[in-house]
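Annex B. Sample input.
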Amino acid sequence: MEKYSNPLIERYSSKEMLYNFSPKKKFSTWRKLWLYLAKYQKELGLNISDEQIQDLKKNLLNIDWKRVSYFEKKFRHDVMAHLYAFGEKAIIAKPIIHLGVTSAFLGDNTDIILIRDGLEILLKKLINIIFRLRNLSLEYHDIPTLAFTHYQPAQLTTVGKRIALWIQSILLDIDELEFRLKSICFRGVKGTVGSAASFKELFNGDLQKTKFLEEKISNKFGFKNVFPITSQTYDRKIDAQILNLLSNIAQSAHKFSNDLRLLQNLKEMEEPFEKEQIGSSAMAYKRNPIRSERMSSLAKFVISLSNSSAMVAATQWLERTLDDSANRRLVLAQSFLSIDAILIIWNNVLEDIVIYPKVIEKHIRDELPFLITEYLIVECVRKGEDRQEIHERIRIHSMETTSRMKLEGKENDFIQRVLNDTKIPIDKKTMDKILNPKNFIGFSSDHTLEFIDKKVNPILKKYHYLIDSDLSSIDIQV
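Annex B, continued. Sample output.
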C-alpha cells in the first residue's frame, strides 16, 4: 500500500484489456516474432537448424522476469534485456535470435498487434451498448417527451428518438473503428532505418526473399496489409489516428453521460441505484449519478490524451527519435484501458436504466400549453378570426401565466385562461383534441423506426456473434 496503484488496473478495466496490454502478452509476442523470424529465415536458406527452431518454441513462454530486470538495469535497453534473458533459456538458438532486425521489429509490430486486438475488444462492448440502446429505443419509440434546445423546453420529440441519437453517435464511431481495423498495417521486416539493408546482405541482394519473409510473418500474425515503406518505426501518425478514434468514442460516451445526468435531475430517467448504495455521506436522500460521472471523468482523460499522440507524430525527427517511447508506453495503453472502462460502465448503466413515463407526462403538461399557441392561432383563423388580434390575446395570456408561475409559484393556467376568453373561439372539446402530445412529435417515431431498421439492425446482424448470450433472450428481431 506504499506504492501508487493505477486505478485503471485496480478499479476500472476488464481482464481481457488488462491482459492485452500486460507484460506477459507484450513480451511473449516479442518472442513469437523472434520465433517466426527465424523459422521463415530458415525456409529462405539461412543457416538455422530445426533444433534451434524447436529450442525457441520450447522456451517461448519461459520468461525469467528477474533476469530480464537484471539485464535491463545493466544495459538500459529493454530489447537487449529480453534478448539476453531469452538466450539464457534457449541456449541452442541464442546465436540466431534477432538476426537482421532492430528493436522496432519487436516494439512496433507488437504495438500494432495490441492496437488491433484492443480495437476488437472495444468493438464487442460497443455492439452490446448498441443492442441495449436499440431495444430501449424501440420500447419508447412513440412516447412523447420534451425536447430541449439551450436546455430550455422547445418542442416535443420521443424518448425513443432521443435514444436513437445516442446510437447514431456510436455508429459513427464503429464506422471509423471498422475502417481502422480493415486498413491497419503491420510494420513488417524493414531493418534498422527502413532500408532493409541487413536483409539485402543476408539474402545476397535478393529483394524477393525479403518480401517473402515480410509477407509470411505478417500473415502469421493476421495482417493482410504491410506498410510499403517505413523509417525505423511505422508512421506515428497511426497512433494519432487511433487515439483520435478513441477520443471520438469518449465523446459519444460523454454526451450520453451528460444527457442522462440532466434527465436524472429532471427525474425522467436515471442510472441504476442499488438497494444499499449510499449517494452522499451527509445527505442521505441523494441518488448521485456516480456511474455517469465516472464515464464523464474517464472520457475527459481520453480526449486529452489524443493531443499527446498528435504531438508525438508532429515532432519526430527524420527516421526516428526516442522521445516517443515513454509517451507511447503511457498513452496507448491508458487510452485503451480508459475506453474499456467507460464501455463497461455504459453497459452496466443500460442493464438497469430506469425511465419514468409519469414524470415525463407531467413535464409535458407543464409546458405543452405554451407549445400549442401556433395551433390555437391557426384554428381561430380557420373560424374567421383576425390572426393579429388572436395572436395578441394569446400573447397577453402567455405573459400573465408565465409571470404568475415565476413570481407566485402558481400552476400553469394558460389553457383555462384561453377557454375563459370569449374572444378566442376555442371550446374544451377542440382544446382536448389539440392537447394530445402525439400531435406534436412530428415524424419522430417514424424516424426512429426507420433508423433502427436501416442502420442499426444491419450492424447488429453483422456482429450478432458479439452480442452477450444473456441478451439474446430479449432480442427484438435482430
